[in-house]
Each structure stands twice: as structure tokens, then as C-alpha cells.
Amino acid sequence: MIKALPTIAIFLAVLAPLHAGRASAAPISFNRDIRPVLSETCFKCHGPDGGARKAGLRLDLREGALAPLEPGVAAIVPGDRAASTLYQRVTAADPDDRMPPAETGHTLSPAQIAALGQWIDEGAPYQLHWAFLPPVKAAPPDVAQSAPAKNAIDRFILARQEAAGLVPSPEANPSALLRRVYLDLTGLPPAPDALADFLADTAGDAYERVVDQLLGSPQFGERWGRHWLDAARYADSNGYSIDGPRSIWPYRDYVVNAFNANKPFDQFVIEQMAGDLLPGSTVEQRVATGFHRNTMINEEGGVDKEEFRMEAVIDRVNTVGTVFLGLTLGCARCHDHKYDPIAAKEYFQLFAFLNNDEEVDLRVSSAEAEAGIARAETAIAEAKAQIVAYLAESAPQQVAWEEALTLPRIRSFTEPEQQALLIADEKRTEEQRKLVLERFKQDDETIQRLEAKIRRHAPRLEGVPKSMVLAPRTTPRESWFLEAGDYTRKSERVFPGVPAVLHDLPPDATGTRLDLARWLVAPENPLLARVTVNRFWQQLFGRGLVETENDFGSQGLPPSHPELLDWLATEFVDRGWDTKSILKSIVMSATYRQSSARREDLEHNDPNNVLLARQNRLRLDAEIIRDAALSVAGVLDKRLGGPPVYPPQPEGVTKLGQQQRDWNASVGGDRYRRGLYTALWRATPYYGLSVFDAPNAQETCTRRIRSNTPLQALTLLNDRSFVELAQAVARRLSTMPDPSPEARLHQAFQWCLARTPDAHETALLLELYEAQRRAFAQDAPETVQSVWGAAAQASPENAAWTMVARALLNLDEFVTRE
Amino acid sequence: MDLEQELNRQEAKALHAVTRRHFFRDCGVGLGAMALSSLMQRNAAASIAPQLSHIAPKAKSVIFLFMAGGPSQLELFDYKPVLQQYTNTPIPPAYLEGRRFAFMDSSFPVDKVKLLGTQRKFAQHGQCGAWVSECLPHTAGIVDDITIIKTIETEVPNHAPAKIFMNTGSAQFGRPSMGAWVSYGIGSEADDLPGFVVLQSGPRGPRGGAVNWASGFLPTTHQGVPFRSNGDPILNLSNPAGISALRQRDLIDTVNALNEHRLDVTGDPEIATRIAAYEMAYRMQTSAPELMDLSQETPGTLDLYGVKQGESSFAYNCLLARRLVERGVRFVQLYHTNWDHHGGSGETLTGDLDKVCLEVDQGGAALVRDLKQRGLLDETLVIWGGEFGRTPMGELRDTIGRNHHNDCATMWMAGGGVKAGCVFGETDELGFSPIEDKVHVHDLHATILHLLGIEHTKLTFRFKGRDFRLTDVAGNVVHKLLV
């Protein structure tokens, strides 16, 4: 034991630089040093899952670990490693006795074994998993290098850097900073005059005024609403095989508006969970429950509808877990969670909150319009019912009608109709009967009168959007604990309830969705605020303080800066769940404003940039790449909201699903709307978005992948819509008063990258321009025209500028926020 | 010029190797050790011993002929004379216990349906004497080169969930498909084509669309890339109007030079990856059209497949599949619809089944023959089958058809280390269930990975705190199928 201690210290210093500041004699911390080891190697068989537990040993709870396995024998005897079976087994010489068993593929390192031993000797203290403990607001630490700190956030960051001997990077140059904050807050690059104003503004608060302006712009809601829509798995189609269309875009607009109005985040959560249950709920609040209607619908023939209704409820439970709690609740659908203290039964208690709803379509209309619309709807429903009733009794009329048909009249019908009429009624196929009936309906006065009535009232319903929402069910459903999560295997009744490891429901709770919503936003919830600010951080730095943003459980990674995470979480709540205010604090920090350039020293000392001694360069999100291109081409249509749009895309993309759909590209401004308005078909997503890693809305997505592929290169190089945008940039250039190539190049460069090119960049691009101009001068006029995109003003010069614009739109820097 | 191009290419490759290492170090998603080591090994010098490729791979590539809709094994491979005797009799109750059938509630009242023997003529073929029906004369001709598995079991009876089960090992959405797993695990040998290619034929696309070849939580680099048989095989492959290959090269040269300059300024290795991506994009612009150009194929080869010039078809896709694996593509998946023979209009067990059999039979058999005559069959695993089988009882629609059946289906495999001339597994005399050598989809996946040199329990990816696998928590390699 005396020998073991220094080994641990060295191990921790080398392999865990995050904790390098810790004195080597410091005691073991259960949450930092022990839980991750037990979770990874032991919990699967000796953890929360009662069904899979071996030898009756449970190690995730102290009483389990100390409980006698047989008289006088326990896995852990506090203070005595030698007497502890756990220690004996992890150090056993005989491979048959050694834990973890070889077939699990897990092994413990000598340092981990030593840490376990030291921990047992120190009394084997347990701690609740960090994420289940309430956040504690610590005072921002004092730092030696206080000069760079702009606010409290920086002091938390600097303290860790100082302990590791790092210094932060300088602030990014003004144009890079401006482009960064524009792209992060609004998803659009700064216009040249905004850049010029900023560069000329020497006042101390110039940056802050820009931040305030961006947070107040309508584009802010589009940018941050889109992040939320990923988590909400929003799409404009039903998914599965048929993937039929749906109308739920008012929910998308609700999200955008909520961010723009800076709706307090707790209110935002409540409305999406249970806006329909709020007293005197508004249309907007009911639309918000579309959050839970973004589940897929299986329209395939022969499915058991109950099975897929249950699948949707299960998806809702899992999504609540991931989005609001950062927990992998879904694991507990089929068995007790293997790592976190969530029992399968508790899973179905949560399920019971969400199992009592009607899935309905809500008309999204104003109160004034509603009365007239409702009248029209009633009239139509009545007429339809009358038609059904009439047809049920209309056999005599139909016989009379058939008998009265003349031969010339029959000849005027379609051939299938003629054939059907020649056969006796009882011998007609189903299809033939339908044909005859349709013909009859066209001739029958009663039907015609009723159909005219429907037509008369129909216009009032047209153009009134509907949105999919939840509504409470009058007679509650029974909820069951489903064995292995199988909807056919009900075992015992369950009632709404929350996991025991978390805080209690409010005392007056009766088990409604609204109760669950209030429980989520309760001040005692240790998770919601942490999980939310962590995602804000992730959007602004590329990685959360908790890197596993969807798993705050024991298999997730611990926070890199626990005190900062808690500070942000508590501030968020203290500031009344004010999203814009927290975002402002983060983007105002010196940490956010640093240069993203790589540094030799950091490559060695902090290669993953965990300590944030620089910013990260991040490839733009799918929508933002196109939005930025639309913007620099000067064609972006900034209208907010409305039904989905259909910008052009390569042919055939929507033919890849079972239903081979057409993609009729929008005309006019709708071709040039922001990417978040593009119709999202789950089975056949818009290519220009999916190729840049936009999620396909099959399930919640709380972090996008950023890939870097040849297919992306082909899209930026050759996709017609990007070529058209390059042509638009060239057209914009051609109207410039100063015709010199240098002036034009500088202008285009500034549009695209919000900075001035250096000498090398200027030379390379002018060389491209000259070479292309000379080459186009030798080309046929048609070639020049097709490159320039029009017959008018087609010249080698203009075609060459199109090539320069294409080069700019293909630069890594164009698709990156630095 | 050529030398310079080659130098550029080498340089891009070297950059690529560096940046892949960077990617795995920095990307922050816990990649499995296997994927890391194999990629390192492929891209850098072979200095790091592969840690987990401890199974000698038999197959280098996979061609999965996906018969979308669920072919009726009882009309094609699983010969059941007893079932024929009992046609029009009720299902013996013992066969119904604990079973779920699709459409049970509506068009399929389980107490009213009757057993249905096939109308098709079966005969034994080849040295191995495998039973194959008259529907598949060409396939009957290759039975000595394939293994017919009659006992494939899956877990779900509806198309979309069953398709993703067959492709991802789970009926839940969000999991990576088999091709994506393989690409992630062992990469691809093609450096001018994607490693996972999807081809389609038939009257409609497969249900669920892109979910079937998605990368799930794996990096999107590994998702299947659909190739089209008309127009550009890959979206956006052609240069824009008026732009010659030379102009495009000029443009890419400028873009890459500017990106290199930015790499110097920022030091971000992601830029080096982008430069490599543009180089590969440029190579794809040449290699993909070359791939699609069948002018170098002999008339004998075209006749073998039954390919008609300028006509897209399953047979054409089979020929493309051979050309893809020749070029080092790791995983090729062909979808052919429509196998959903319920008995309704357009889905009869008579004319409509004949039609789809005619569409696939010659091409699939030709692929096996062609690979064999070129010496490629040993290293190429060919798989034929759908998402589930069909019921032994009839389903009454406009005509009598068959319903979805997830307890047993027939698939065949050829090459890539699988036995030749073998019929594997046995079903009960009515064709309801496997009674011998059941092969669950997880077992099938484990076996496919094994043939590629991958231990299925070790190909993992951590997501939401759990190490996910293609085979979930199950799967056994079916050693009896292996050579």
C-alpha cells in the first residue's frame, strides 16, 4: 500500500491532466475516480438492473456493496481492502477468479486497482452521481492573470488554465470575431456595411452593441430555433414506409417565435409538454404541444395501430429523457437501466404521464375567424353525413338510374365504366361497383345538391393551417409495465410517477402531463438547467462542458468545468430562465472571443482543447452553409415562417422512397428562403441539407455530426443551386462602379469571408480570374453564356468572375466559422 | 503532367492519413479501437499492428441483393408437399400459439384463413439436389455455387420495421446500417468511389428510403451513397454547364491552394481533410462515369446478365455491382421492389410474382457466374433475400396471396467463404417455423461480419453511454455455413 500511492499520483497526473492540479496526497473522490471505473467494468452485472444482477451483488449502492454475500463476507469492508472480496477478486491471480471476467473484454489497470484499494482503505465513501446532486453556485475563482477576464465565465476557465500552466489566446481579430458572432447568433454572415461600421467603431461597447442587435434580430430565433427543432425531431412528413405529408409547421414557427420573444425557458418547456392543459390555453400554447407530435406515424397496411401508438409514446418518454434530463431513459424500456438508477418500472411510470392523450389536428386561426370557420366545418360535416346516409338507402334510385340509361349515354362513358355497367350488380368487382357508384352520384340530384353545399363552404377552410397537437383524453387509458418493452406483454398496472433518484412530484400532482412539465422545471430538478446551458455552450464552442450532451448518467463523461457548469445553470434559473441573457454572457466572455488558431503549445498540453485556451473552428451547420451563400449572393428572402418551401435540388432525390414523390421546386422568393423552411421529408431528406449532416428526424438529435466528405465537395462545386448562387455573386459584382479586377475581388472576398484577402490570396484569385478570362475568350459564346448564366452581358470577364465566385463559395473558410 | 498529378495524389493521400489520425483524436466521439486501428493501418504505413482483426477475412466485399417486400419462400425455395395436401384446410391450432401476424385484425381474420399449398412446380437441381421452383430457372442453374438458407428468422412483421431490422439489427430507428458498420470497421479499398454504394430497381423505392442505408450515430462518411442508373450516377457528379474537366481542375487547384494557405494560417487539420475530399471528388468525377460505361464489357457478358444497353434494370445493377467490387468498393446493396404478394391487384402470387422473378432471376445468377469465372467469387460475398418470408396460409384479396411472416424466410448466399452447393436449415412440414438450424438475423449479421474478418462483439460504437453493435446483444456466427 505504501508503494501504491505514488503510482496512483503519477498515473493521475499523466493520464488525467484535468486533475493535475490536485495534490498527490488528496483522498480519492468517488465520483471522479471510482464511479467511472465501477460503471464501465462492473455495473452491467452488479448494477441497477435487477434482472441481470449476478451473485446478488449490487455495487452502485453502498449498502449493496457492504451487504454480506455470505456470513462474514462482503464485497467491501470499509477501511480494509484485504478483507474486501471486491479487492481480492480484482487482484486474484487465478484468471477464473479474477474480476472483471476476461469474456467481458474489460480489464482494470494497476492504477485503477490501486485507486480502488485506496478508496476502500479510506472507508469506501459513496457519493450520489454528480448530475443528481443539485447544482451549487460557487463564487468565480480568483485568478492571477485577471487582465484577460471579461466576466465570471472567464475566471472559471482561466483558473483551470492556470493550474495546467496554460495561457489563453488573444481575442480574434475584429472581422473574424464579427463573422463568428453573426453566424453563431443569426446564422448569417455580416453585410459589408455592418463590417465597416464595426471596424470603424472604436467605442468600448462596440461589440456589446452588436451582440444586443443580433440577439434582437428575427434571424436569432431562426438560428436558435433550428437547434431546438433538431432536439424536437421536427419534420414535415410522417416517416416509416409511406412517409406521407403532415402539417405541423405552425409548431416550427412557435419555436422560432419563442426564441425571438425570449420566452422564459421554463415556460417554453411547460407549453411544449402540456400547453393544452394550462388554464385558458391559447392556440399558441396548444400548438406548442406539437413537440410531442413530432413522432413518426406508421401508415403501412396491416400494422397494429396500437403498437405504433405505443411506439410514439415510447419515443416521447425517451425524448423527454434526452432533451430535458440528459438521461438515457430509453435503456429502461426493456430492463432496469444497466448503469443509472432508473428501474424499468419507473420508465413505465413516466410512460403513464404521456399515455392519456388524443392526437388531434388543431386549426391555427384567430378567435374572430374561428366562428365562421367552425360554421363552415359543421355544414360540411353535415352534408357529408347526409351523403353517406342517402347512399345507404339509395339502391332503388340507383337501379332506376341504371335502367334509365340510354345506349348512347353509356357509350359516352369510359371503357371500364361501360364494362361495369354491362355486368349485373352482384357480379361486379369492388372496383367496378365504385365506378358505377361514382357515375350515379354525378347524375343524382340529391347528391349534387349536397356536394354543391360542400363546395360552397370549402373555401372558408382553405388556407387555414392545421397543426398536430396533443389534447387530453376524456377517459384515461390504463398504463402497464410492459415486459421487455413489448406492447403485447402487460405485466402490472402502473400509475404516473417519477424516478426515485430524482426529486418528488409536487404534492398536489394528480398525474397529468402538466404535473410532469412542472416537475421538469421545478427548482429542485438538478438536470434541466445544466443540460440546457450545456447545449448552449456546445453550440458556441462545438463541444459542451459535458461532452456527452445526451448522457449525464454514470456512463457519460464528467463535466470538464463542473463549477462553471453549475454557475451557468444556477444563473440561468436565477435570471428567470432568460435564454438571451445567458447566451449574451457566454458570447461576451473573453473565452468565446479568443482566436481559434491552433497553437503549438496547446497541441501538446491540451490537444482536445478541453481547457479552451483557444476557440474552435467549426464547420457551419447544413442550413447555414446555404443561408450564407444566399446571403452573399444578395438573394436571401428573409420572410419569417409559413408553410415549408421547396428550393431546387437534384432530380430524383424524392424518388428514392417507397412513394416516389415529385419535388416541384418553389418559384419566386420561396426558392431563396432560409434552410430551416425547406420541406423535410424523413424518408427522402433534402439532399443539400442531408449531405451536410442535417438530422433526418427519426429520433431526437442533440448534437450534429460534422463530417467532411467528397460528396460535400461535389455539392458545393456542382449543385445547380450553388452554381446559380455563384452566378448571382458575379452579377452583383458586375454592377460595381469600380471595374478593376482588384476592387471586384476585394468586394467578393469581403462578402464571402468578411475580411480583406492577403497578398497571396489576391494573387491566387486574380490568377484564376485572368486564366479563366483568357480561356473563355477562346470559347464559343454559348459556353460563356452558360457559365455566366444568361445571354445578356455574357462576356469572358463576367464568366471568369463566376469562376472566382465559385472558388470563394468552395473555400473551407466559407463553410467554417472561425 | 502525369507525374505531377501522381505527386499531387500522393500528397493528398499523405495529408489524408495525417488528418484521419487527427480526426480520431479530436472528434470527441469515442470510436471503437478496431475502427481506429484499421483506419490507421490503411491510411498510414502499416506500422501499427491491427489489434482486433484476428479473424482472417474470407470476403473483401459484400453484394446484398435485397428483395424488398418479402419474397414467398414457399413459391421459390421451400418445397412443402404436405402443405399442398392440406390446402384449404384450417391452420392446426398448435401452429398458432404465441404468434403474431400482420393484418390479423382486419383483412386477416385468423380463424377463417386456410392453408395454401403452392401452385408452382418444384424440381431438384444440381449435384446438391436443391429444390427450386420453376419461377427461378437461372437460380436453379447455380445451386451448386450457393447455400440456400431456409430458416431465416426476424422479429417484426411490418415492412418498414422489418427492413431496418434486416439492415441495422434493430427495429428502432437511429441505428447504423450494416454497410455503414462495415465501412466504419474496415474502411474501403476504393479511393475514388464511396465505400458503400446503393443501387435500386423495380417499380418503386424501398420503404423507409434512406433509413435503410443510413449511418445512424456513426460518422456520416459511412452512409450508403445511392447511385442512379440514369443521368449522373452520383448526385452533382457532372461539372456545371460550360465547365470542361480542365476548367474544373483549375478551379479545384485554386481552391486547394487557398485552403492550404488557410491551413498554414490556422493550423486546423480539418482543412487538410477538406483538400483531400476535393481531390477525391475530382477523381470520382472521372471514375464514376467510367464505372457506368459498359462499352468495354463483351457482348457475352451483357448476354449473360441479360443487360440491354441504355435500359436500367436489376440485371444492369448486378453488372454494376461486379464493376464496383472490382474497384474495391466494400459494400454494395441492390434493392429490387416489389415482392409483396398479398394477392391484391399488382401483387398476385401468379402473374405478378412471375414478373418480379423474371426481373431478378437471370441477373442474380449471372452475377454469381460472372464473379466465379473472373475468380472474384471467393472474395465476394453475395447475399439474396428480403426483410421476411410469407405465410403458409393464403390471404384472400382479389386473388389468394400470402401475408407477411417473420418466423421463417429463405435467403441464399454465395462466395466469400460460404459453402457452395448446400441447403441449410429445415422448416416444419407446413412451413411455419424452423425446426433445425434456425438462423436469426443477428446470426446472419454475425456471420457476415465474421466473413469480413470482423468479430461482431468487438465492432462497437459508444453512443448515449452504451457500446452499440450491429448484433445488439445477440448473434452467433453460423460456423456450419462456412467453408
In a nutshell, what does this entry contain?
The complex is a heterodimer of chains A (818) and B (483). Chain A has 818 residues and is mainly alpha-helical. In chain A, helix 13 (265-274) packs antiparallel against helix 24 (513-520).
Q: Would you kindly provide a written description of the structure presented here, covering whatever features stand out?
A:
The complex is a heterodimer of chains A (818) and B (483). In chain A, the strands form 4 sheets. Chain A has a two-stranded antiparallel ribbon. In chain A, 49% of the residues lie in helices and 4% in strands. Chain A has 37 helices and 8 strands. Among the domains of chain A are: 4-127, no CATH class; 264-364 and 472-525, no CATH class; 370-464, no CATH class; 720-817, no CATH class. Chain A is mostly helical. By secondary structure, chain B is α/β, with parallel strands linked by helices. Chain B has a domain at 60-80 and 119-230 and 312-481: Alkaline Phosphatase, subunit A. In chain B, 35% of the residues lie in helices and 17% in strands. Chain B is built from 13 helices and 17 strands. The longest helix of chain B has 25 residues, at 2-26. Chains A and B meet through helix 32, helix 35, helix 36 and helix 37 of A and helix 6, strand 6, helix 8 and helix 9 of B.
